[in-house]
Amino acid sequence: MPRGRRPRPLVIQPADLAVLQQIVRSKVRPAFQVLRARALLGVAAGEPIAAVADQSRFDPASVWRLCRRYEKQGLAAVTVIATPSPKMAETSTMPLETEAVTAGMT
Questions:
Q1: What is d(CA 23, CA 8) in angstroms, rounded to the nearest whole number?
Q2: Cα gap 84→69, rounded to integer Å
Q3: How far apart are CA 23 and CA 7, in angstroms?
Q4: CA 39 to CA 73: how far, in whole Å?
Q5: Is the pTM higher than 0.90?
Q6: In whole numbers, what is the pLDDT of the chain averaged over residues?
Q7: What is the pLDDT of residues 35-55, one digit of tens each?
């Protein structure tokens, strides 16, 4: 008998189902879109989130968040690249360090 809470089912809209299947079969779509579509289809088919996460190389929490984003945003959850929150952008020093290293090379 499974432990823990019963998983929240993911219902994919009929119009979105064909699009997600097409994205999974695509040879030209970005890999992140294919992996997200495959994860959504797996959860909707009743696979445990942990199993889908292992197959998709995602953290289980990421799969859970992807499912919740799909419920709110639809297909945009699969196709749109997430942007960092404004707070993260303010505290990030990575571009400045990269520019300093690049400037020293020329």
A1: 24
A2: 15
A3: 25
A4: 16
A5: no
A6: 82
A7: 999 999 999 999 999 999 999
